[in-house]
Amino acid sequence: MKQAMEDVVNEVLSSVVQDVGQAVDRNVTGAQILQELLSAPWLRALLKIYERLMEFQRLMPGPLLPYASGLSLEIMSQLQKPHRPSAEARELYNLLSSPHIQALLSSHDSIARSDYGPVLPPLPDALPEDEEAIRIVCLVKNNQPLGATIRRNEETGEIYVARVIHGGLADRSGLLHPGDMLVEVNGSPVGGLEPEQVIQILINSQGTILFKVIPNSAQIPSSQKPVYMRAMVDYCPQKDPTIPCPDAGMAFSRGDLLEVVDQSDGQWWQARKLPCTTSCAAVIPSASMLKSKQREQWWCQPLHIHTCIRPLTPADHDDDLPQMQDKCTGKDLEEINFDQAESDVTDGIYLAGFRRSFRLWRRSSYGRRRQSCTSCSPNATLSSPYEEVLLYQRPPEENHRLIILVGASGVGVNELRKRLIKLNPSTFQGPVPHTTRPARAEEHTGREYHFITKELFEYMACNHRFVEYGEYRGHLYGTSTDAIHDVIKQGRVCVVDVEAHSVPALRTKKLKPYVVFIKAPSADSLRQTRRDSRVITNYSINRAFTEDDFTELEEASRLIEAKYKQFFDSVLVNDDVQDSCIQLCSIIQQAQDEPQWIPISWSRTEE
Ligand SMILES: Nc1ncnc2c1ncn2[C@@H]1O[C@H](COP(=O)(O)OP(=O)(O)OP(=O)(O)O)[C@@H](O)[C@H]1O
Question: Which keywords does this chain's UniProt record carry (predicted)?
Fold first, then answer.
């Protein structure tokens, strides 16, 4: 019968498909779609399921009687009646009286009567209106922490759930909420105990933990959307005496990306570190909480005088960063024409920004002493501890993002930048620097440098038109933001090489910079890879790297990374120069064409 019914449906379907096929031949509009639909294997599978369901509905087995256990009792009493029961009767009696058969028959009767719910005693009539409901919560402890913190009301001694950690055991149970009052844990009353004593009870509990709680009636359901933040400071819960529960806290360091899942508490947020391996969040201080900690720390520190208002002494800005010293040993030296790049032109395009004096001023302390004061202001240390970010993909019609290369002196920033531009001069370009040095016969303004007067240079410096500037051998040199914009406006990718402390000044909505940190490889690898390399010195000569250079380079690289890593979007270890160049190309391509995290303020309409 079932087979016959299925055949009928299939037959009807086949004939419909046939008819539709004819309609397709006659080019009837929509017939093609209908034919594809009706011939789809899933439709036939669906019909089969339908047939099976119909069959089941028809044969639905019902109970023969709803009182099998009563019947068995009756049989057992009959079996006991004869004085000498037969062996079969005794066997049947033993079978029916066994606990398993009794339980089976009892279950049968419950199912037969569809009697599934527990029978609860009726509520007493005179129940007071304000009676607090007690909730019994049973959690099975595994290796994970419970995922909730508690606090004590100092006046009443009552213990409350302070917070429930997102994704933790308590949160996933959906049964414990902030503000719930704990009455008992595993049968022990907890009112009046210290939180540490309650925690001890929890630690000592094995397997199942039974909580008796009075639910928080004022609980507001939270449906917060996660917010993404970049940490701009380091934080360690174990070193924070104010955190309510250090074990529930999360350590993070500058540059870490945090998914903040709960900001309902003004002091303590909940977050996950990205990329995250666990669904469970942890507690971190809120922005305002961290700010007040920063303020406290700042007041406790010895007074920092602004570099910009200090008289002309060596800058303290990066005093802790070793500089590649001018060590002219007399051996292995190479004479170079002063202020000459190794090769200025490639494919008819001039490589600006590689001249020796321009590069050397940045090594001199005088150059660094004249930095703009933005990076040494106290506000820089007290700036926001978190930076809200979002995933941004550059629309193809928008300007390219500025690419900033940062690295310790001698690590190879210029080498990589030069190789990159030579590789594709129509795509990559550096900004043309400004100088007060007089132009030489073969030089053109706007090509090697923008040659300008000292007055104009100083006017531009006062108006914050330079990203970096300084003096070398009596002449001023600098990179202006206008020169960067000029490259970008031409539709090219502008690649600049600046000192790490200049990065914050370039972080604007207009430039949307992507910062690549060129990191020194290990001293061993430096020894291997820099065997034939030359360092430019303050003299008009190049010399081979020394052992001290490698040590200093490694140390300077480590310090720059530790101090500025919150600004780095990518880190590239400059080991083999060719590999590094390929990696840099792909990093830049991803920066321009793939989604990247940027500060949310760069995406807003107002600057
Ligand atoms: N991966 C590498 N392998 C071998 N040599 C390298 C590598 N990277 C750079 N060099 C060489 O090291 C020397 C210093 O590199 P570069 O001039 O690029 O330094 P820099 O980081 O720009 O520092 P500065 O700005 O102080 O000049 C150059 O001779 C360069 O060719």
Answer: SH3 domain
What is the CATH number for 147?
Answer: 2.30.42.10
What is the arithmetic mean of pLDDT over 597-602?
Answer: 94
Strands (DSSP E) found in 62-207: 135-140, 148-152, 159-164, 181-185, 188-189
Is the residue at 377 inside a domain? no
- What is the rounded CA–CA span in Å between residue 354 and residue 448? 9
pLDDT of residue 596 exceeding 90 = yes
Q: For ligand 1, say whether the CB of 340 is within 6 Å of any of its atoms.
A: no
Contacts of 475 (CB under 8 A, 6+ apart): 357, 435, 436, 437
- Give the SS3 label for residue 388: strand
Residue 394's φ and ψ, nearest 5 degrees, are -65, 120
What is this model's ipTM? 0.97
> CB under 8 Å to 420, separation ≥6 — which residues?
428, 495, 581, 584, 585, 588
Distance of CA 23 to the CA centre of its chain: 56
d(CA 172, CA 140): 12
Whichever domain contains 240, its CATH number is 2.30.30.40
pLDDT of residue 605: 66
Are 490 and 577 part of one and the same domain?
yes
Domain of residue 536 covers 345-370+389-602
Answer yes or no: are the C-beta atoms of 485 and 467 closer than 8 Å: no
577 close to ligand 1 (CB < 6 Angstrom): yes
Question: What's the pLDDT at 507?
Answer: 94
Indicate which atom in ligand 1 lies nearest the CA of residue 408: 21
405 close to 568: Cβ distance less than 8 angstroms: no
Given the CA of residue 577, which atom of ligand 1 is nearest to it? 1
CA 416 to ligand 1 center in whole angstroms: 8
Q: What is the 7 CA–ligand 1 centroid distance (Å)?
A: 80
Quick check: is 120 in a domain? no
Is the confidence at residue 145, as pLDDT, over 50? yes
Which domain CATH number covers 552?
3.40.50.300
Which protein residue has the closest C-alpha to ligand 1 atom 25?
A: 409
Counting residues of the chain whose pLDDT is more than 90, the rounded percentage is: 38
Among the residue ranges 11-20, 38-47, 131-140, 330-339, the one predicted with the least confidence is: 330-339
Same domain (yes/no): 451, 508: yes
Pocket test for ligand 1, best of 356, 409, 415 (most atoms within 8 A of CB): 415
From 324, 356, 361, 530, mutation site for ligand 1 pocket: most ligand atoms within 8 A of C-beta = 530
- 580 and 434, same domain (yes or no): yes
**CA 416 to ligand 1: nearest atom:** 18
pLDDT in tens, 201-255: 888 877 788 888 888 877 666 667 899 999 999 999 998 888 888 888 999 999 9
Q: What is the pTM of this model?
A: 0.69
Does the residue 379 lie in any domain? Answer: no
Same domain, 457 and 596: yes
pLDDT in tens, 521-537: 999 999 999 998 887 77
Residue 209: inside a domain, yes or no?
yes
- 563 and 484, same domain (yes or no): yes
The number of folded domains in the chain is 5
Determine whether the shortest distance from the Cβ of 326 to ligand 1 is under 6 A: no
Mutational test site, ligand 1, from 334, 359, 414, max ligand atoms within 8 Å of CB: 414
| Average pLDDT along the chain | 82
* Per-residue model confidence as pLDDT tens digits over 566-579: 999 999 999 999 99
